[in-house]
Structures are given as structure tokens and as C-alpha cells.
Write a structure and sequence with these properties.
- 2 copies of one chain form a homodimer.
- Chain A has 8 helices and 11 strands.
- By secondary structure, chain A is α/β, with parallel strands linked by helices.
- In chain A, β2 and β3 form a beta hairpin.
- The longest helix of chain A has 19 residues.
- The mean pLDDT of chain A is about 95.
- The interface between A and B is large, with 56 and 56 residues.
- The structure holds a DNA duplex.
DNA sequence: CATTGTGAACGGGTTCACAGCA
DNA sequence: TGCTGTGAACCCGTTCACAATG
């Protein structure tokens, strides 16, 4: 294995492999194969083998892959073998749902901060988090050294919030605002926009 | 323009083009170019031109594209020139946030039904919707002829809910449950899983 | 002997570059 | 002149097919 540049499209599949493996693990499966993983994921077995082979020889010929071992390897590759602290900006409906979300457990993330600029909300609690004043965003995030943030604010504020997150040293942003955000090249941004997914499907509906 | 099979990867970009154009429209822009769209979207101008040319000749040489005209064309192509009625299953944190979400307006979708199986929730209201009994899911959806549903239930129920939606005649499903769902070929499924996005970024973080 | 790892072949999506046209 | 539409070239990801091997 050479540590050449891995195409981003492969990186994008690894979390799906990991999620599938963790599910197998919960089902008590100890070993799997590229064929089985492919069937579960709707991906060809050859592609899974080739993707994994970019990072090492994780399988055993004739046997397949050890589920716990592959989980360990993928977790390390994706840097989710330890939890990342995450800040959430916006405590409206989406921010609250994100703050309550149980799905980050065992996936490498823990929400530790929740910000809002509404005086009515600041100081109130959502789950185990107390809503912080947005005006303290930069200093608080800097202080804690947080590198990942989730943006759950209206379209109109998304750019300003992003700018402040970047100033605070955040390097990865997941935004629920349906707008493309300008950001430095060394900051990674991903988007969640349900309408995009729905429109992608309505093309095929009559 | 021949109505040959359009690659799905192109279909996936059209909603992004449409969202960007609607934003320009709100900004009062009347005309744009493939260059400008590309810069906003982080996509090459050539690709945008080639994508659009699959469906017709929408531009004017030397001038560019009319923003309102292109919005109209893309809306028709994606079948979002009229609103689709959407059912939401699950009225927990995610389902509630989806039900409250304003971002479907002008994107072609209107949530008209919200189901849950918790007797405590059934009959209560979320926004303008009254939570319906999940046991009435199939007949209600059939009756209304709803073709699109959003699944916001725990992983453990996602498959069963999907099976019932399919029975009810739903053809497009957007699922927030972090698990791959089995479904007939003539039913389209898309997923939203924030952990997948985050893990895709942590690969690049130290 | 089932299944991996992988070079080679393949296929298709992206970019290039320019003719065409307002 | 400026920008679209598009055939051709290019590039890169996927699939193929089989040697390797526990």
C-alpha cells in the first residue's frame, strides 16, 4: 500500500461500509465477504474489494473479512476511532432535533455546544446541553479547540455563521441551510437539503 | 433533443442548478451564464452547459440564460412545477422538525400528513398538522393518492414502515433512518444521514 | 476451493476547443 | 464580441478476470 492520494469518491463510500459493518457487528456476525457487503449496500463486490485494498490487505483469501477488525481499520482511516466534539449553531427545530439525535453515538461524534442568538432561548436546556449565547461563539469554540460544527440557521445567516466558525478554527462544517457557502479551501463543507433529494426523485415520477 | 436515457448523475445536479437559479431570481437577476452558475456552484461551466443541453437549447449565444425561463424549464423537467403532497412518518424530533420546515415552500412539496404510533402524540398538533394514527397509514395514503413520503422513525422500524408505504402506493421515500432499506425497483429511496457526511470530512482532519 | 487483491480492459462522465449564432 | 451547444479527446472510476492463498 502506497499512501498515494485516494479519490474522494472512495472516501465517500467508506462511511457506508463502516455503518454496514457496525450493523453486522450488532447482529453478532464475525466474518463477512465483499459479496455480502455488496449485496447489503447495492455496490459491486469488486468495487468494495478495490476500495478497501487502497488502504491495506484487510481480508483473508477464501475466508473474507473479520467484521470487528474491519470496523477497527475503517474507524482509524476515517479518524472516528475517538469521539470528535461538535458544536451546533441554531437551536430552532433543526438544531434541536440535531441536539437530541442519538445517531451520533458510536459514530465518532459528541455534541458539546449549542448556540443561538435568541435571548428567549439562551440559558434554556435541550437534553443535556444549555443553549449558549451566539455572541460567545468564537471564543468558546476556540477555547475548546472544536474542529467540527453543524449549522442549523436560516439561509440568511448561514454565511455569517460560517465566517465566524472559520475564524474560530473550525475545519469541517455540516450545513442544513439550503445555500452554497463560501469557505476557505482548508475548510470542508457538506450540505443536507431534503428538497434536493426529493427533487432528484420526482424527475422519475409522473 | 432526443429523449434518450439521461444519466442519473446529471439528474442529481439539476436540483442544485434550480436552487441556485431561484436564489438569483430572489436577488432580482434576470440573466445568468454557465460561467456564473458554475462559480456559484463549484462546477465547471462546460458541465452545466452540457447538462442543460440534454434537455433542450435553453440559452442564447452571446447572452446567456434567462433566469425565470430556466427556472420554468428545470421545474418542468424535475416535475416540481406543481406541489407534491408528502406524508411524514414519525413525529419525534426529526419528524417534528421536518413538519415545521419552511424549506419545502417553492421547492415543489407540501407536507399534508404526519403519522406516529405513540398514543400520547396522536391527535396533537404540530404546526398546521394533526398527528394521525400510524395504524391508518396505508388507507389514508392510498385514499389521498400520495406518492412521496419521508421516514423519520428509529432504525428498528424503518423497514416495516417502508413496506407499508410501498403497500400504500408510495413511489419515492426519503429516509432519515441510518440503515439501508429493501424496496422494489420501481420505488425510489434516498437517505439523509448526518454521520455519513461528518465521517467523510473527518478523514481529512488530523 | 471460496474469496481476496489487482493489473488490464472497459465504459462513461468531464473537459476541451471551437463552430455557430445573437 | 460573448457565450452557447457539442463532437472529440481525455481522464478516471468501475468492472472484469484470474493468479494467489489461507
Amino acid at each position: 500500500m502506497v499512501d498515494k492520494k485516494i479519490p474522494d469518491i472512495i472516501i465517500g463510500r467508506l462511511p457506508k461500509y463502516l455503518r454496514s459493518l457496525q450493523r453486522m457487528d450488532r447482529e453478532g456476525r464475525l466474518v463477512t465477504s465483499s459479496k455480502e457487503m455488496g449485496e447489503r449496500l447495492g455496490i459491486s463486490a469488486a468495487q468494495i474489494r478495490k476500495d478497501l485494498s487502497q488502504f491495506g490487505e484487510f481480508g483473508k483469501q477464501g475466508k473474507g473479512y473479520s467484521v470487528p477488525f474491519l470496523i477497527k481499520q475503517l474507524s482509524e482511516i476515517l479518524h472516528v476511532n475517538h469521539d470528535w466534539e461538535v458544536a451546533v449553531v441554531g437551536a430552532g427545530d433543526i438544531g434541536s432535533a440535531v441536539a437530541h439525535y442519538k445517531g451520533f453515538a458510536n459514530r465518532g461524534f459528541k455534541i458539546v455546544l449549542l448556540f443561538d442568538n435568541d435571548p428567549q432561548r439562551i440559558g434554556t436546556r435541550i437534553g443535556e446541553l444549555t443553549i449558549q449565547d451566539y455572541s460567545l461563539l468564537i471564543e468558546t469554540i476556540q477555547e475548546k479547540g472544536i474542529k467540527i460544527a453543524i449549522v442549523a440557521v436560516p439561509v440568511t445567516s448561514a454565511q455569517e455563521v460560517t465566517d465566524n466558525l472559520v475564524k474560530a478554527g473550525v475545519k469541517a462544517i455540516l450545513s442544513y441551510a439550503p445555500v452554497i457557502i463560501n469557505h476557505p479551501q482548508d475548510v470542508y463543507v457538506q450540505y443536507i437539503d431534503p428538497s434536493i433529494h426529493l427533487q432528484r426523485m420526482t424527475y422519475y415520477l409522473d
